[in-house]
Amino acid sequence: MSNYGSAQADATALLTLLRAQAALVSPPFAVYPDVAGGPSTVPPGAMPPYVSVHFATENSDGGRLDLRSTRTRTRAYAHCVGANDIAARAMVDQVAVAWLDVRPVIAGRTCDPIRHEQTREADVTEPVAQTTVTLTAVYRFETGPA
Amino acid sequence: MATAVFDFSELDKWSADLSHAGRITRQQARGVVSKGGLSIKNEARANAPGGPHTPFYPASINYDINAVPEGYEAEIGPAEGRKQWGLGNLIEYGSAHNPPHPHLEPALDHEEPRFIDACEHLAAGDAWINGAWGR
What we know:
The complex is a heterodimer of chains A (146) and B (135).
Chain A: H1 7-24, E1 30-32, E2 50-60, E3 71-82, H2 85-99, E4 109-111, E5 115-119, E6 123-125, E7 132-145
Parallel strand pairs in A: 1-2
Antiparallel strand pairs in A: 2-3, 3-7, 4-7, 5-7, 6-7
Chain B: H1 9-21, H2 26-47, H3 57-60, E1 61-68, E2 71-78, H4 88-93, H5 104-123, E3 127-129, E4 132-134
Antiparallel strand pairs in B: 1-2, 3-4
Helix pairs in contact in B: 2-5
């Protein structure tokens, strides 16, 4: 898969930026999935605020003359969870600080700046003992061969 | 004495293309928008998860063509009232605990270059004849 990039490289680049931002905030917020991965994205009992990120990566030809699908397009779905709407928006802002217009570095790839696509309306969940508010911010990240 | 020679052929061609643009009929524009909407709908349906938990969801995806002041727009997505249409947001974007299954926005991405190409042909005065653009 030389020159084709990888879903893991894209995810790692985005998560590294987000974890670095999380460490700068006091108190730091949690970022899922965990560095070591795991059977589920968010471990049972996780308390807000936190950001849970899912990725969807596809290889596109990007209109290249050689018709090789060497560009990756990764959408990152950052589910920003807070105890209330204010806390959820604070997580949205932290994700923006970490990602918006930032150009990650991946060896062997040219990386476009990360772009924001949309932020979804609040999704309120009311489990037995806790109410949380989730805002989902969608970002797009594209890379090509260096 | 120095002589400068300018090549205006590209500008002339562009000017000619613009003169054709005024002849685009609303019907032709509607056809291009409709074809784009149909393609996005078909791909989204094909890639939407339709497993045991969402057997009716793919068929809920539809498209409408709306006349707007600027021309036409296609609205593609789960049609309100169809079985399981309300799962669209959760399926497309996921949640903190559930991964997304993107099927609408990737379909839009894939159609975009074809749609722009069709618009450029329309602006150049081409017509879709027997499965190909021509004049």
